[in-house]
Amino acid sequence: MGKVSKKTETPKIVEAQIEVTVETPTQVETQIKYVGRKIDPTSKRQIELAKKAEAKANGTFKKGRPIIGTSKRQETLAKRQSKIEAHGSLKKGRPSNETSKRQIALTAKAAKLAEGIEVKRGRPKVEKVEAVTTDIVELEKGEVIVEKAVKAKRKK
Question: Residue 145 and residue 134: Cα distance in Å, rounded?
Protein backbone atom coordinates (compact mmCIF):
# COMPACT_ATOMS: atom_id res chain seq x y z
CA MET A 1 0.00 0.00 0.00
CA GLY A 2 1.11 3.54 -0.73
CA LYS A 3 1.68 6.25 1.78
CA VAL A 4 -1.55 7.98 2.80
CA SER A 5 -1.24 11.63 3.68
CA LYS A 6 -3.84 13.42 5.70
CA LYS A 7 -4.29 17.10 5.13
CA THR A 8 -4.65 18.96 8.35
CA GLU A 9 -6.86 21.96 8.16
CA THR A 10 -5.71 25.06 9.92
CA PRO A 11 -8.39 26.47 12.18
CA LYS A 12 -10.08 29.50 10.69
CA ILE A 13 -9.94 32.59 12.82
CA VAL A 14 -13.25 34.35 12.94
CA GLU A 15 -13.27 37.87 14.19
CA ALA A 16 -16.63 39.12 15.35
CA GLN A 17 -17.57 42.29 17.09
CA ILE A 18 -20.13 42.52 19.83
CA GLU A 19 -21.27 45.93 20.92
CA VAL A 20 -22.18 46.19 24.55
CA THR A 21 -23.98 49.32 25.61
CA VAL A 22 -23.92 50.23 29.27
CA GLU A 23 -26.30 52.99 30.30
CA THR A 24 -25.85 54.93 33.45
CA PRO A 25 -27.85 58.00 34.40
CA THR A 26 -25.01 60.35 33.54
CA GLN A 27 -23.33 58.82 30.44
CA VAL A 28 -23.58 56.09 27.80
CA GLU A 29 -20.54 53.87 27.15
CA THR A 30 -20.08 51.57 24.17
CA GLN A 31 -17.49 48.82 24.37
CA ILE A 32 -16.48 46.54 21.51
CA LYS A 33 -15.64 42.98 22.50
CA TYR A 34 -13.95 40.62 20.03
CA VAL A 35 -14.97 36.97 19.97
CA GLY A 36 -12.33 34.33 19.16
CA ARG A 37 -8.56 34.25 19.40
CA LYS A 38 -6.66 37.41 20.06
CA ILE A 39 -4.97 39.04 17.08
CA ASP A 40 -1.37 40.17 17.18
CA PRO A 41 -1.31 43.46 15.21
CA THR A 42 2.49 43.27 14.83
CA SER A 43 2.45 39.93 12.96
CA LYS A 44 3.50 39.86 9.28
CA ARG A 45 0.08 38.75 8.11
CA GLN A 46 -1.78 41.46 10.00
CA ILE A 47 0.61 44.16 8.73
CA GLU A 48 0.09 42.91 5.15
CA LEU A 49 -3.69 42.84 5.60
CA ALA A 50 -3.62 46.38 6.98
CA LYS A 51 -1.58 47.58 3.96
CA LYS A 52 -4.06 45.92 1.57
CA ALA A 53 -7.03 47.48 3.35
CA GLU A 54 -5.37 50.90 3.23
CA ALA A 55 -4.55 50.53 -0.49
CA LYS A 56 -8.14 49.51 -1.23
CA ALA A 57 -9.42 52.53 0.68
CA ASN A 58 -7.08 54.85 -1.26
CA GLY A 59 -7.86 53.18 -4.60
CA THR A 60 -4.23 52.22 -5.23
CA PHE A 61 -4.67 48.46 -4.71
CA LYS A 62 -3.42 46.52 -7.73
CA LYS A 63 -4.24 42.89 -8.29
CA GLY A 64 -2.47 40.47 -10.65
CA ARG A 65 0.69 40.74 -12.71
CA PRO A 66 2.12 44.15 -13.54
CA ILE A 67 1.86 45.29 -17.17
CA ILE A 68 5.14 45.58 -19.08
CA GLY A 69 4.73 48.25 -21.74
CA THR A 70 7.43 46.90 -24.07
CA SER A 71 6.04 43.35 -24.34
CA LYS A 72 4.83 41.85 -27.62
CA ARG A 73 1.28 41.53 -26.29
CA GLN A 74 1.11 45.23 -25.39
CA GLU A 75 2.34 46.13 -28.89
CA THR A 76 -0.41 44.06 -30.54
CA LEU A 77 -3.02 45.57 -28.21
CA ALA A 78 -1.79 49.07 -29.09
CA LYS A 79 -2.00 48.29 -32.84
CA ARG A 80 -5.52 46.92 -32.40
CA GLN A 81 -6.57 50.02 -30.45
CA SER A 82 -5.16 52.33 -33.14
CA LYS A 83 -7.10 50.42 -35.84
CA ILE A 84 -10.30 50.76 -33.82
CA GLU A 85 -9.72 54.50 -33.38
CA ALA A 86 -8.97 54.95 -37.10
CA HIS A 87 -11.85 52.88 -38.57
CA GLY A 88 -14.37 52.86 -35.74
CA SER A 89 -14.45 49.08 -35.39
CA LEU A 90 -12.27 46.06 -35.88
CA LYS A 91 -13.36 43.30 -38.23
CA LYS A 92 -12.41 39.78 -37.27
CA GLY A 93 -12.57 36.50 -39.16
CA ARG A 94 -12.95 35.67 -42.81
CA PRO A 95 -14.50 38.39 -44.98
CA SER A 96 -17.82 37.51 -46.63
CA ASN A 97 -18.21 37.37 -50.40
CA GLU A 98 -20.97 39.85 -51.27
CA THR A 99 -21.67 38.17 -54.65
CA SER A 100 -22.37 34.71 -53.20
CA LYS A 101 -25.88 33.23 -53.31
CA ARG A 102 -26.20 33.25 -49.53
CA GLN A 103 -25.17 36.90 -49.12
CA ILE A 104 -27.55 37.98 -51.89
CA ALA A 105 -30.40 36.10 -50.18
CA LEU A 106 -29.51 37.61 -46.79
CA THR A 107 -29.46 41.17 -48.17
CA ALA A 108 -32.82 40.58 -49.90
CA LYS A 109 -34.27 39.26 -46.64
CA ALA A 110 -32.93 42.29 -44.73
CA ALA A 111 -34.46 44.62 -47.33
CA LYS A 112 -37.85 42.90 -46.96
CA LEU A 113 -37.68 43.21 -43.18
CA ALA A 114 -36.79 46.89 -43.50
CA GLU A 115 -39.86 47.46 -45.74
CA GLY A 116 -42.09 45.64 -43.24
CA ILE A 117 -42.83 42.64 -45.44
CA GLU A 118 -43.38 39.40 -43.50
CA VAL A 119 -40.56 36.93 -44.04
CA LYS A 120 -41.51 33.29 -43.63
CA ARG A 121 -38.98 31.08 -41.92
CA GLY A 122 -38.50 27.32 -41.77
CA ARG A 123 -40.06 24.60 -43.87
CA PRO A 124 -43.15 25.48 -45.90
CA LYS A 125 -46.45 24.27 -44.49
CA VAL A 126 -47.86 21.17 -46.20
CA GLU A 127 -51.56 21.12 -47.03
CA LYS A 128 -53.23 17.89 -45.97
CA VAL A 129 -55.71 16.10 -48.26
CA GLU A 130 -57.95 13.58 -46.56
CA ALA A 131 -58.84 10.41 -48.43
CA VAL A 132 -61.72 8.31 -47.10
CA THR A 133 -61.64 4.57 -47.75
CA THR A 134 -64.48 2.26 -46.83
CA ASP A 135 -64.22 -1.44 -46.12
CA ILE A 136 -67.25 -3.68 -45.93
CA VAL A 137 -66.94 -6.50 -43.42
CA GLU A 138 -69.48 -9.34 -43.38
CA LEU A 139 -70.09 -11.33 -40.24
CA GLU A 140 -71.54 -14.86 -39.84
CA LYS A 141 -75.11 -13.76 -39.15
CA GLY A 142 -75.34 -11.54 -42.21
CA GLU A 143 -74.65 -8.27 -40.45
CA VAL A 144 -72.74 -5.73 -42.45
CA ILE A 145 -70.36 -3.28 -40.80
CA VAL A 146 -68.80 -0.42 -42.68
CA GLU A 147 -65.41 0.70 -41.43
CA LYS A 148 -64.10 4.07 -42.44
CA ALA A 149 -60.41 4.80 -42.39
CA VAL A 150 -59.12 8.29 -42.90
CA LYS A 151 -55.58 8.68 -44.12
CA ALA A 152 -53.86 12.01 -44.50
CA LYS A 153 -51.83 12.40 -47.65
CA ARG A 154 -49.57 15.22 -48.67
CA LYS A 155 -50.54 17.35 -51.59
CA LYS A 156 -47.82 17.33 -54.19
Answer: 10
